[in-house]
Structure formats: structure tokens, C-alpha cells
Amino acid sequence: MENASALSARSLQYSFMRRFGCSPMQWQQRERMIRVRERLFLLPPDATITELAYEMGFSTLSALTTLYKRHFGETPIQTIASARFQRIA
């Protein structure tokens, strides 16, 4: 991000804190979790969460699940169940 923005590491941190209220790493993590959530809502029945975890760059399913629960207060399985229930209702 420093190279792309032409800012020093510290300037980049200050800019992110002012604009987004978090560090660049926290912002990246939040954006990644949003993309995971979007993908979970559209996950085909024959796809697995483990496959999605690997596609999104996680080394294990538990790493994804832990971070996901911290961000959204539910597990990926709960999100999928909710999404499928909403489609039926």
C-alpha cells in the first residue's frame, strides 16, 4: 500500500485512521471479511466453506471461522443457513 500510495508507513497509518478509523491492516481484514460474507450468501449447495476459505487466502477453515465470528458474531455455517432460509421464505 505504501508503494501504491507513495506515502510512508506512518503517513499511511495516519491517513487510514482519519479516513476509516482503523489501521490499514484492520481495513484490509474488514474488507476481506465483507467479501467472504458476500460469497457465503451466494455459495452453491455443492461448494464447501473450506474451499471458500482456501480461495480467500486462509490457511485453515478454523482461521476463517474465528475471524468471521469476531467480525459478524456468527459462524459461516450460520450465515449460510440464514441465507438459505431467506431464499425459501
Please specify the SSE layout and strand pairing:
Layout: H1 2-5, H2 9-20, H3 24-41, H4 49-55, H5 61-72, H6 76-88
Q: Give me the strand/helix succession.
A: HHHHHH
Largest sheet: none
Mean pLDDT: 88
Q: What is the end-to-end distance?
A: 43 Å
Beta-strand segment tally: 0
Radius of gyration: 16 Å
Q: What is the general shape?
A: elongated
- Please report which band the strand proportion falls in: under 5%, 5-15%, 15-25%, 25-35%, 35-45% or over 45%: under 5%
What keywords describe this structure?
89 residues, single chain, 74% helix
Written account of the structure:
- The chain is an all-alpha fold and 89 residues long.
- The chain is built from 6 helices and no strands.
- It has helices at 2-5, 9-20, 24-41, 49-55, 61-72, 76-88.
- The protein is elongated.
- The mean pLDDT is 88.
Give a short overview.
The chain has helices at residues 2-5, 9-20, 24-41, 49-55, 61-72, 76-88.
